[in-house]
């Protein structure tokens, strides 16, 4: 281990009982952080503050924002997402295991979704209860028997991982519908290269820029037409969506159309882009809105965001939709419990990455245990994401605990519970001082018609910016770090 002088503001660095990504003990950093540790420990407070101001200015100039919605406020608040300059670094061997486990998981999940909308072998063989499918709010009967271009239901996915105090990684959630965060991964690397070019060049790290080309090629591979240059569009809910910056960024970087539902029209079971000189057929639609809103004729009749007739064109095989409608049946938080069984069933392999222990509150015995230990649990609504509908027992007031107990008793199948995990920590800059904050990792996966998952090297490290908090979601005020994979 490389011995360094205490870093600015930390003397010594408080490890407590958490696993720290950078520090091996209170005064020593891990070998793969050698260059990063030396650089940041050698910078004066004025230099650190100057870099942070420059970073903030660049983010403001480029409009790198995320919109927060607070029920207590009348208006949503747009802000630059907190970006910490100290990168999170993952050694080569450690990443290779993560990558293999993620590929295994996505492969099994894609097979599961196909099975559920076709033969349902996994249900017939008693691995997954039928009621878990039928009662799932994301199950779409309209997808039954429908051929999906390339057989790739999960074109884009975000797998959330945590590292526990034992040093092992665990999968926390699977995000398979419209995962967000891609833009912060790519833009974060670009900003780090601009602000710390000497650090980037001195460290042997995996490149992420080529993954944008892979993203585009994956979308192109799904095109049902035989045209050499398929027309690809990103369907956005519009500029008031919390992730609109990301939609605009990805469309611009990949050179695809950025559209709202009103820009499209269905004719003869095909989807067309309305242009000044007529109509232009669209081959692939990368949608960033939920199933309910993509087609008012098929799903939510009141939706003004989607395209009337889109599902008819999809059924006719005239357009590809990424991700396929109905993929949410596999990222429901209750279905998460069965993913290790899916891996064994479809792949005949043992899971490489473990799940966090999870209690299904529809089971009487597990429900009673959770109710008896509610202050030690994280309780989540199965159909919600982004940190909404969640209780962290250790941080809850007595009134909140009582309220959640009543909610669970009223509708137990609506919730799952997990023990509070000791998320690993990493140092972040607070002013000119380094302070520890809890983190997780969202790993992004791309899958095209070849159904060979590509894991973007590193992914996005999300940071709970509030001291002691375990909530890393951007929608709840969390920040991000650039994530380096050693080459």
TrEMBL record:
Domain Circularly permuted ATP-grasp type: 87-464
Superkingdom of source: Bacteria
Entries under InterPro entries matching the protein: ATP-dep_Glu-Cys_Ligase-2, CP_ATPgrasp_2, UCP005522
SUPFAM superfamilies: Glutathione synthetase ATP-binding domain-like
Pfam families reported in the protein's UniProt record: CP_ATPgrasp_2 (PF14403)
PANTHER family assigned to the protein according to its UniProt record, in alphabetical order: BLR5612 PROTEIN (PTHR34595), SLL1039 PROTEIN (PTHR34595:SF7)
Protein name listed in UniProt: Circularly permuted type 2 ATP-grasp protein
Originating species: Paenibacillus tianjinensis
Lineage, top ranks: Bacteria, Bacillati, Bacillota, Bacilli, Bacillales
């Amino acid at each position: 281990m490389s011995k360094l002088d205490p870093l600015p503001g930390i003397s010594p660095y408080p490890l407590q009982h958490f696993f720290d990504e950078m520090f091996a003990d209170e005064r020593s950093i891990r070998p793969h952080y050698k260059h990063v540790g030396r650089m940041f420990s050698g910078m004066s407070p004025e230099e650190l503050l100057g870099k942070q101001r420059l970073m903030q200015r660049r983010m403001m100039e480029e409009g790198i924002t995320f919109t927060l919605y607070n029920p207590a406020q009348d208006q949503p608040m747009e802000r630059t997402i907190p970006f910490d300059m100290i990168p999170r670094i993952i050694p080569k061997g450690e990443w290779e295991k993560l990558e293999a486990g993620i590929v295994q998981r996505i492969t099994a999940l894609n097979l599961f979704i196909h099975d559920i909308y076709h033969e349902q072998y996994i249900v017939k063989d008693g691995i997954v209860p039928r009621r878990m499918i039928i009662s799932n709010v994301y199950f779409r009967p309209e997808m039954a028997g429908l051929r999906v271009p390339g057989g790739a239901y999960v074109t884009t996915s975000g797998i959330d991982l945590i590292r526990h105090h034992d040093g092992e990684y665990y999968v926390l959630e699977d995000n398979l519908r419209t995962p967000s965060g891609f833009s912060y991964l790519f833009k974060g690397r670009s900003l780090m290269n601009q602000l710390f070019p000497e650090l980037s060049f001195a460290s042997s790290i995996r490149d992420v820029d080529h993954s944008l080309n892979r993203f585009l090629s994956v979308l192109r591979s799904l095109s049902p037409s035989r045209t050499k240059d398929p027309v690809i569009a990103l369907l956005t809910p519009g500029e008031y969506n919390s992730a609109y910056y990301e939609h605009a960024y990805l469309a611009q970087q990949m050179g695809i159309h950025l559209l709202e539902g009103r820009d499209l029209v269905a004719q003869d079971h095909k989807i067309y882009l309305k242009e000044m000189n007529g109509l232009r057929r669209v081959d692939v639609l990368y949608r960033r809105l939920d199933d309910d809103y993509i087609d008012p004729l098929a799903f939510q009749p009141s939706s003004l965001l989607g395209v009337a007739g889109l599902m008819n064109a999809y059924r006719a095989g005239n357009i590809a939709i990424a991700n396929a409608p109905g993929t949410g049946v596999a990222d429901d938080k209750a279905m998460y419990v069965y993913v290790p069984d899916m891996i064994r069933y479809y792949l005949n392999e043992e899971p490489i990455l473990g799940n966090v222990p999870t209690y299904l509150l529809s089971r009487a015995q597990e429900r009673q245990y959770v109710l008896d230990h509610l202050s030690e649990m994280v309780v989540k609504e199965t159909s919600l994401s982004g940190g909404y509908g969640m209780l962290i027992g250790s941080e809850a007031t007595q009134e909140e605990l009582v309220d959640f107990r009543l909610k669970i008793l009223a509708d137990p199948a609506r919730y799952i519970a997990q023990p509070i995990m000791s998320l690993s920590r990493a140092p972040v800059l607070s002013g000119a001082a380094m302070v520890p904050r809890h983190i997780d990792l969202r790993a992004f996966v791309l899958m095209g018609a070849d159904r060979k998952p590509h894991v973007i090297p590193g992914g996005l490290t999300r940071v709970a910016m509030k001291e002691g908090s375990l909530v890393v979601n951007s929608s709840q005020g969390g920040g991000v770090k650039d994530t380096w994979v050693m080459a």
